[in-house]
Amino acid sequence: MDTSYKRITTSKLYIFIQVMLMGSWIAQLIKSDAYYVCYVLLGIIISICTYINITNGEVLFRNKHGRYIDVVINVFSVFFSCMVAFANYKIIAYTVIPEGYGITFDRLFVTLMTIIFFAGGYCAFWNVFILTYNKLTLICWKKRNEKLVNPTVCFWVSFILLVLSRVIVLYFSQYPGELTSDSITQVIQTKSGIYTNHHPFYHTMVIKLFMDLGMMLFNDINAAVATYSFFQILSTAFCFSFAVSTITRMGLPIESIIMIMMFFLLMPYHIMYAFTMWKDVMFGCFVLLLVTSIFRCMNNIGNNIINYIMLFISGIGTCLFRSNGFFAFIILTVLFWVLFGKKEIRIFLMFVVMILICFTLKHPVLKALKVAQPDTIESLSIPAQQIARVVYEGYELTESETILLRQVMDIDQIPDTYNAHISDPIKALVRTTGNQQLIEDNKFEYIKLYIMLGLKYPFAYARGWIDETRGYWNAGYEYWIWSNDVHEDNAFGIKRITNSDSFNRRLNEYLWLFRNVEILKLFLCIGLFIWVDIYMLIISLLRKDREGILASLPIFVVVCSLLVATPVFSEFRYIYAAFCTLPMVVVIALRPIEGKEDETRNG
User: Fold this and answer.
1) Cα(520)–Cα(157) distance, rounded to whole angstroms?
2) Would you call 175 helix, strand, or coil by DSSP?
3) Contact indicator for 137, 128 with CB cutoff of 8 Å
4) Rounded to a whole number, what is the distance in angstroms from the first to the last CA of the chain?
5) Relative to the CA of 59, which of 69, 77, 86, 319 has its CA 20 to 30 Å away?
6) How far apart, in whole angstroms, are the C-alpha atoms of residue 225 and residue 221?
7) What is the rounded distance in angstroms from the CA atom of residue 77 to the CA atom of residue 81?
8) pLDDT tens digit string along 438-483?
9) Whole-angstrom Cα distance, residue 329 to residue 183?
10) For residue 27, how many other CB atoms are within 10 A of its CB?
């Protein structure tokens, strides 16, 4: 047989197999309980990429791009395929097969469908990533040679627009700001003087500072809350405008700068969060400031003294304003050393100093101030959910395992209490028993219990972990995003004041659109934004761009910290930092680097 004919036949067979696998994969995802609009968008992208790859002769999974490139593409193709498959395990695992087919048929069917599902996902993402590599020079934006837009003007235009728009919304519709039960808890601490670090103590101190200032100036509790809201409006506007100014200095086209400004200005979560009394809002802005200031320091953008001051402030804020922020910052420091070593020793040493300062502030200082740390079970959301899942699904426990669990919780209530998406009900069972000190005193016994149950029932553990975390790594899920009220159960007289009913109605209509119009839901999808962040990491890896890799890592490590400790499966505010930083991450990852594409292709 002619060799060329055989090659053409083989290629057509590969094309047919890939298309069938990917078609089956997308079809199966119709049954997903995630936002299907994400998968529709993904399907369109995959179809375009596959068509171009077929046209260009990229149909075989062969090593022809160099070992490094092929490893990156294959590893992340498997990674993304696994993410989608694991998050949608119920599609296959809970398929109803009519009676009479037998256990053997059931197992064969599930095994075959699982293989097809994983293979279809792999083919889909492989086509996207291989085209990304082949078109890197087209994907990355070109720096213009003409005179740049004045960065200072961009900063002030952005800052003024953001502040004015937020103040108008606050005054006419949302005065004095958004306060949930968590916010009221922190306000209670500022009034009682009895503090805990369950909600970060230093954020509570910021609330106290501005509420005290508001009371001093206006002698009104609502005005005191509004004073804090105004401070947060200024803070978020500054961080967003600082990023816009930095992007301007990088030579991004004016059209793209305006789009980024509009993203910060018009997205509903950026509007509502600007005056919501949560530590997560400040944390998200600190992470954006951290990404921006690191890049500025490494590239001598603007005033270096200001850059290092912003780096210091953002690092301290990242560590102190969320519990998982400190651990994420430590991991980021290690990764920074791996990427740059002694080349950026000044920044690395600053990271180390910030870690030492924050450790001192979080532990010796709080101990001296007699600020109580979160209780033991608060940091054990994932293990608690996994153990509860074993009991919930009716698996057998040994006598010793039962005794250990009964000492710290009423396991008979687990079947009626367990919620696959929220750990609070199980944590409440532990707190009700009041024996958390037993876990501390016998930690090795409980660690052994956790490990042994995991070895006996690994799939129950896997289901418990997936259901508790999948909102952060797969598409998007229907769950509340912003608060639109003041928590009424407060003894301070804080209440919502709407100064314009018509303005308030228009605002609520605007918010409603994003929750109900399918295409607008894309802007609310946690998983989609995390996928884009990882995609920027892949592009940076393909370009061998260490600064691009670093820019995408803060969100990646924040997500990793949530995967081991999140109490809620899809809490938007926990990952708000991703929605703050993504424009900066994208611009850094796609920035022009002279000779980098040629170097990548030769490497």
Assistant:
1) 26
2) strand
3) no
4) 36
5) 86
6) 6
7) 6
8) 998 898 999 999 999 999 999 999 999 999 999 999 999 999 999 9
9) 25
10) 11
